Amino acid sequence: MNENGQLRDVFEAIADPTRRQLIQLLAEAEERPLYELTAQFQIGRTAVSKHLTVLKEAGLVYDRKVGRETRYRLDASPLKEVQDWVEFYSQYWSKNLLRLERLLEEDDE
User: Fold this and answer.
1) What is the residue-wise DSSP string for 34-52?
2) pTM of the complete model
3) What are the beta bridge partners of residue 65?
4) Which domains does the chain have, with CATH numbers?
5) pLDDT digits (tens, 9 = 90+) for 53-102
6) What distance in Å separates the CA atoms of residue 52 and residue 48, rounded to the nearest whole number?
7) Crossing angle, helix 45-57 and helix 17-27, to 10 degrees?
C-alpha cells in the first residue's frame, strides 16, 4: 500500500489500454453500471471486472451496489501524479529543445 492508501501504482493501472478506455468511459458519465461498461468491449464481464478491480485498487474507481447492480464512478485525483510526471518531462524537453535551437542558431551565425 502506498502513502495514499492505494494498493496499486497509478502508472501500473493506466498501462493497459482496456483500463484507459474504462477511465475514459467513466469520465464521460457520473456513474456507469457494469453491464454498460462490459457492452463496450469484446471481452467478458469477468475480464472487465478484473480491470475495474485494478483501477479500484489504484484509487481511480469507486463502486457501489444498487440492488443487484454494481455501479462504477471515476475518481481522477490519483491521475494528478501522472500529470505531474508528464509536466516535469514536458518542461525538461522544452528546455533541451530551446538549448538545441540556440546552438543551431549560433552555428548558423
Assistant:
1) HHHHHTTSSS-HHHHHHHH
2) 0.77
3) 70
4) 10-108 (1.10.10.10)
5) 999 999 999 999 999 999 999 999 999 988 888 888 777 777 767 777 77
6) 6
7) 80
